[in-house]
Amino acid sequence: MSDISSPEITNSDLDRNEQQEVDEIYKESIINQVYAGFGIRFVSFVIDCLIISGFQGLVFKPIYHATHIDEVKLWINYFSIDHLITALVFYLYFVLMTKYFKQTLGKMICNIRVERVDRADLKWSDILFREWIGRIISGVCFNLPYLVVLFTPKHRGIHDYFANTVVIRNKFASVFYLKK
């Protein structure tokens, strides 16, 4: 019997094609690691909501109990003092924390943060579109626009597209800042 061995591949084009395929797979896996997905972002949001709720319970509930100001309504029940203060605290929390720390307390706990796609510093307009207008639009649409995060390549939500932002994992920040 003769010794059968596989022929050596000498075609450099085949090697390049294989290398490009491997590079694409590697790049895709890195992207999946750098950008925070729906699950971790959802956990972060739940933590933030618990923090806001706890803050309001500690600060505003005693005031409401003593003054009954939460029962005052402007035109309709939705425009009660309680609803207005709750909304104000909610949006201020997200806007101010994102502006000054690039992350809320929930994001800090989950080790993720908000960055601009072009890697520049966050501007007030970016933050207001992302954290205020984007959240209002998502809320009006029963929070369904948040599900877009599941299907976009860099796990960007509608509010991220409005503001030209992404949410990254802190441990991969150096990879995110590498030149394109």
Automatic annotation (TrEMBL):
Upper taxonomic lineage: Bacteria, Bacillati, Bacillota, Bacilli, Bacillales
Membrane topology: Multi-pass membrane protein
Location within or outside the cell: Cell membrane
Highest taxon above the source species: Bacteria
Protein name in UniProt: RDD family protein
Membrane-spanning residues: 34-55, 75-96
Main location: membrane
Alphabetical list of InterPro entries matching this protein: Pra-immunoreactive, RDD
Signal sequence coordinates: none
Residue ranges occupied by any RDD domain in the UniProt entry: 35-164
The UniProt record lists the keyword Transmembrane helix: yes
The species this protein was found in: Staphylococcus marylandisciuri
One Pfam family matching this protein: RDD
Keywords: Cell membrane, Membrane, Transmembrane, Transmembrane helix
